[in-house]
Every structure is written in C-alpha cells, then in structure tokens.
Automatic annotation (TrEMBL):
Organism: Chitinibacter bivalviorum
Keywords per UniProt: Cobalt, Cytoplasm, Magnesium, Metal-binding, NAD, NADP, Oxidoreductase, Pyridoxine biosynthesis, Zinc
Name of the protein in its database record: 4-hydroxythreonine-4-phosphate dehydrogenase
Binding partners and assembly: Homodimer.
An example Gene Ontology molecular-function term: 4-hydroxythreonine-4-phosphate dehydrogenase activity
Length: 335
C-alpha cells in the first residue's frame, strides 16, 4: 500500500556515504514508493561512478515539482562549495541543514509522506554554523516541529526474521547524567509516546513493552540503586492501571534473550548504550532509526557517515533500503 505523496530522502553529509547509498538505492529496482532526493544534482552526478550507476540515469531523473509523478525525482539544493568524498568542509554545514529544513517543511504540510535521512556529521555542522549547537537529527526534528519530547527507537530484523525494536528513555547524555534525567514525568511521557506510536504508526492494537531497569540486576531490591523503586516501578504501575501492557523492570543483561524478547513488541532501554549495542550487533547493516512522537514520520539509517570509505562504492545500502521500506509502511498505516 502506498500513499499518494512521495517520500523525501535527505542525502546528509555530502562528504560521507549518504549521496552514494541514496543513488545506489534509487537506481535499483527496490523502490517501495515514489521518492524525492534532496541533494545537489552535480554532487549526485559526481558520485554516480563510484557505485556503478551511469550518469545518464541520474540525468534522466526529473527536477521535483509537486505535480511530478516520476518514481525518482531530484529537489536540487546547491552546495556552498564543491564536496570531496571523505573530506569534511564546514562551509557545507548550512547545506545539510537546508536539506533537513525543506524535508521537514514539506512533510509538515503534507507534501511528503515521510522523511528518510542519510547520515550527517554533528561535529562539522557545529563547526560550520557560527557556534550553534547541533546534537543530532532527533533533537533537531523535535525543535523544528515544536515537539516537547520525542523518543528515539531503533529497529531491525534478527534471527529468523524476528523484529527487534529498542526505544530509549534517555538519548545522547553522558552516563553520569542519566539517573538525574530519568524522572517520573519523563518516563511517563516516553512510555506514552512509545505506546501511542506502536498503535497508530505500527498498527499494533495492544502493544507489549518490555522495560529495562537502570541498575545492574534492576537494582536488586534497592541494594544496587533506588531508581527502580523510586521511579520506574511506580510509573509502570500507574500506566498499567491505565491499560498499558508493560513487562518489567527487567535486568538489562538478560532481557535481550529471544524467549524474553518474544513476549514483547518493543524494549524500552534506560540509556543509549544499554540497548543499542545489542540491537546493532543483531541487526547491523539493516537497522533503522525511527523518531517517535513527531507529527511527521521520520526514519533513518543506523550508521554514520563512514568518511573512510566515502567515494569508494563499498558502502552497504541495506540500512537505507530498510529505512525507506519502513517509512513507506508507516506512512501507509498512519494514513
């Protein structure tokens, strides 16, 4: 099932692998939905050779207009300066944000059915935006859509085509700050967002959520920390009373076993490196990053810019394909 509106694909950091994996996917036969590539057209033409795509194929992709019905079109956005694969240039930081802004604006207005983002480089964006602080796609999307709180979730298939979904109660924080950020209010909101999007975007009528504890052994009755007793357990009790199916809190070192994972539709980890190393080990190369709680749909690859192989044609397109397919599915379900 498709929506009538195309997906917006932002190609990310121009010196990274984003442009080439986008080209490789768009030139393949794996197109779950009509797509608009946001990029500098010259950059696409330059990177075509490294992935074995004829320049003529890209030249034939029409310029995007709202009336365009081609399977692939290009919304040309000029670079500030030519980009060399593998070589970051702060002069193009604003270009990367312009791609995002245009995709966000179009999705908010219903022009695009969803956004799929290729990787960006946070450091060079901060360096090139006159002291502005950019902490990542997730936080930027929340700010631009005026969303008070969003939830980062990664997903992917593992084993015998089983689906693993791991959401985060806190995201890009130093480990020393996690316990202070894990409040009753933030955890309630996170679980409500996760539950709501599993229902309305993933189509799960009664989602089952497995919740990890924060401390080793889930605190072991307070002997290894009181966050479970003071925050996590009371929140789960309250939300269960509201009808949510919540399992836990469980010790994080044992919950990522297939028999336990089979009892839930998603896991809520308390911090970034509690849940994501397991998911990325199990699904790397085909994992997907989804931002929950937004008024729009956004998926992304689960890897970085890979500057060391940019321009070589060695980048794996599996994660981008998976992110694009899921964006199309979520858009169809949400509509």
């Amino acid at each position: 099932m498709q929506t009538t509106q195309p997906l917006a694909i932002t190609t990310g950091e121009p010196a990274g692998i984003g442009p080439e994996i986008t080209i490789a996917m768009a030139a393949s036969s794996i197109l779950p939905q009509r797509m608009v590539i946001l990029a500098d057209r010259t950059l696409l033409l330059e990177r075509a050779q490294c992935v074995g795509v004829a320049r003529e194929i890209i030249a034939a992709w029409p310029d995007y207009t709202p009336e365009c019905t081609a399977p692939v079109s290009v919304l040309h956005t000029p670079l500030a300066t030519p980009s060399v694969a593998g070589q970051l240039n702060p002069a193009n930081a604003a270009y990367v944000l312009t791609l995002l802004d245009r995709a966000i604006d179009g999705s908010t207005r219903g022009e695009f059915s969803a956004i799929v983002t290729a990787p960006i480089h946070k450091g060079v964006i901060n360096e090139g935006t006159n002291g502005g602080y950019f902490s990542g796609h997730t936080e930027y999307l929340a700010e631009k859509t005026h969303t008070p709180q969003v939830v980062m979730m990664l997903a992917g298939e593992y084993g015998d085509q089983q689906q693993m979904r791991v959401a985060l109660a806190t995201t890009h924080l130093p480990l020393k700050d996690v316990a202070n950020e894990l409040t009753t209010e933030s955890l309630q909101t996170t679980l409500r967002i996760l539950h709501d999007d599993l229902q309305h975007k993933f189509g799960l009528a009664a989602p089952r959520i497995i919740v990890a504890g924060l401390n080793p052994h889930a605190g072991e009755s307070g002997h290894m920390g009181r966050e479970e007793i003071d925050v996590i357990i009371p929140v789960l009790a309250q939300l269960r009373a509201e009808g949510m199916n919540l399992i836990g809190p469980l010790p994080a070192d044992t919950l990522f076993n297939p028999p336990i994972l089979a009892q839930g539709d998603a896991v809520l980890a308390m911090y970034h490196d509690q849940g994501l190393p397991v998911l990325k080990f199990a699904t790397f190369g085909a994992g997907i990053n989804i931002t929950l709680g937004l008024p729009i749909i956004r998926t992304s690859v689960d890897h970085g810019t890979a500057l060391n192989i940019a321009g070589t044609g060695q980048a794996d397109i599996g994660s981008l394909i998976a992110a694009t397919k899921l964006a199309a599915q979520l858009a169809a379900t949400a509509h």
